[in-house]
Write a structure and sequence with these properties.
This protein is of the alpha+beta class and 519 residues long. The chain folds into four domains: 93 residues; 97 residues, Orthogonal Bundle (Helix Hairpins), CATH 1.10.287; 142 residues, no CATH class; 106 residues, no CATH class. It is built from three helices and 27 strands. Strands 1, 2, 4, 7, 10, 12 and 13 form a seven-stranded mixed beta sheet that branches. Strands 19-16-15-22-25-24 form a six-stranded mixed beta sheet, with no helix packed on it. A five-stranded mixed beta sheet has the order 14-9-8-17-18, with no helix packed on it. Helix 1 packs antiparallel against helix 2.
């Protein structure tokens, strides 16, 4: 059964870009003959995965796909330049030919010099032998020696000129080859086609749909937040990279967080033995405690070095491009718009002096896009233009969204901590009193009259055992905190006029009985 040598074009019509690969869909109209025939389709990317290839006929034509396979051919580059080669590559070929001719001329000159050296040696031997036999042909011997020396000098000078020219050509060739390596991409030598075997009862046109998975393609989410007064516009984009060897032109693009390469088997559960032991008398008399920093854990993928994966909250998310897109196969990042949403945002100036002395402009709103926001970078644009780049965490639809639009240099915050320890003699109860003072000041430009509210947050320890008590002394606080949440975060809303200064005082006690050690 012969194969049609003329390949049938098989363009890319739809792409589903995954976290580290892409699902390619192609379609074409085939004009079938009656009987069994083998068709050649393509070319396609040589990176296509063979075992993922599937083909189906989408019309009601009485035809069946018997076999579909990917065939790759190796087409090495010829030694001679082609008409499509660039001027730089043609220059390299010309330099190589000129250098080859110079090398041959140098070899001939070296052979001529060697022959002239042997001739001079034979001539000197002949002069010595003739002198021993009484011959005195001085004129002839002098003429022959002068002629040999003159030819040796001439050929030696030509050899030196050839070596210098050959060295210059070698340097020029190296620079030209380096320029080609930097400026031109080598053409693909491995070409892939699809060989399709079909059987048709009658002749006629039929629609073919073919799909496969290919490597060297990935995507990551990216955002752009524009703040205009109380209005926040959030643009959701996708950064797409692909180097599959073929361009995607006007394709339907789908972005998915599915991880097709991950194993779907459940993890193996190991045996975990729990044993009970009696406490010693010393352990019964004392309670060991310690102060530690506890970070509130959240679900999500573990951090990795290099390009991170897509944080989808543990559930596969699918996003669609609203319009056909084109992504060339150049390995560069291409921004694809996905959605734009505008909502009313709430702004506040906040500061956590224990972590940072900077006052940050924080914007809060609910996710207005109608879809989940995957973790990724966000470009922040304010009234003064581009203000920097931040990070957006995974946010479910309608969930609270927080964006920090940078710090303000017209605020200064100073934090001071004092600690006093007191132990009662009779009860052996230890009380640790801590006083935290926060000095907040605002430096305003001339003409500013608006009062701004700054939200200060300070942490209070939270006890996990009943033997240790934490008490907030509100009567000693100045002013008293506006609110204290379950994690022990105290908050103050401090209004500051232009060039104003305020001092906030927080006082709390840690009390423990004599049985407690480590406080």
């Amino acid at each position: 059964m012969p194969t049609d040598l003329e390949p049938i074009p098989l363009p890319v019509t739809a792409v589903t870009c995954l976290e580290d690969r892409a699902q390619i869909e192609r379609s074409a109209t085939l004009d079938l003959r009656a009987g069994v025939q083998r068709l050649r389709l393509g070319p396609i990317s040589a990176l296509a995965v063979d075992r993922t290839l599937h083909a189906e006929l989408t019309t009601d034509h009485p035809a069946t796909v018997l076999d579909a396979r990917i065939v790759r051919t190796w087409t090495p580059r010829g030694p001679l330049p082609d008409a499509d080669d660039s001027a730089l590559r043609l220059r390299v070929h010309a330099i190589e030919e000129e250098r080859s001719a110079l090398e041959q001329r140098r070899d001939r000159l070296r052979a001529r010099l060697d022959l002239l050296g042997r001739l001079a040696t034979d001539l000197l031997r002949e002069i010595g032998e003739g002198t021993g036999h009484g011959e005195t042909d001085t004129a002839r011997w002098s003429a022959e020696l002068d002629r040999v020396d003159e030819e040796r000098d001439t050929h030696a000078e030509q050899l030196r000129a050839a070596d210098a020219q050959l060295k210059a050509l070698t340097t020029e060739l190296q620079e030209a080859e380096r320029a080609i390596e930097l400026a031109e991409r080598r053409p693909t030598e491995l070409v892939a086609h699809v060989e399709l075997t079909v059987e048709a009862d009658v002749a006629g046109p039929v629609r073919l749909r073919l799909g496969h998975v290919t490597a060297c393609a990935l995507w990551r989410p990216a955002y752009r937040a524009v703040l205009d007064g109380d209005s926040l516009t959030l643009e959701t984009d996708a950064m797409v990279w692909q180097l599959t060897g073929e361009d995607w032109s006007d394709v339907r693009l789908t972005l998915s967080t599915a991880r097709s390469a991950s194993s779907s088997e459940p993890p193996r559960l190991g045996e975990d033995r729990l044993t009970l032991t009696d406490r010693s008398p010393a352990e019964r008399r004392t309670v060991a405690v310690e102060l530690r920093e506890e970070e509130i854990a959240e679900l999500g993928p573990a951090s990795v070095l290099g390009l991170p994966g897509v944080d989808d909250g543990g559930r596969t998310r699918v996003l669609h491009s609203p319009a056909p897109v084109s992504v060339p196969s150049d390995g560069h990042a291409h921004r694809v718009p996905l959605s734009v949403a505008t909502t009313t945002a709430r702004s506040e100036y906040t500061c956590s002096p224990e972590l940072s002395p900077l006052v940050t402009h924080l914007v809060r709103c609910d996710n207005p896009t109608g879809h989940a926001l995957l973790a990724g970078p966000v470009d922040l644009v304010g009234a003064g233009g581009f203000g920097g780049r931040g990070t957006l965490d995974f946010t479910a639809p309608g969930a609270p969204l927080r964006l920090a639009f940078g710090s303000h240099d017209d605020y200064r915050v100073l934090r001071e901590v004092e600690e006093h320890r007191d132990t009662t003699t009779m009860t052996q109860r230890t009380t640790v009193t801590r006083t935290v003072r926060l000095h907040l000041s605002r430096f305003s430009a001339p003409g500013e009259q608006d009062e701004q509210v700054v939200a200060l947050r300070e942490r209070i320890p939270v006890s996990e055992v009943s033997a240790v008590e934490v008490k907030l002394r509100k009567e000693a606080c100045s002013p008293a905190p506006t609110a204290v949440d379950a994690e022990g975060i105290a908050r103050w809303d401090i209004p500051l006029p232009p060039n104003g200064r305020r001092t906030v005082t927080l006082v709390y006690e840690l009390s423990a009985s004599g049985k407690v050690s480590g406080l």
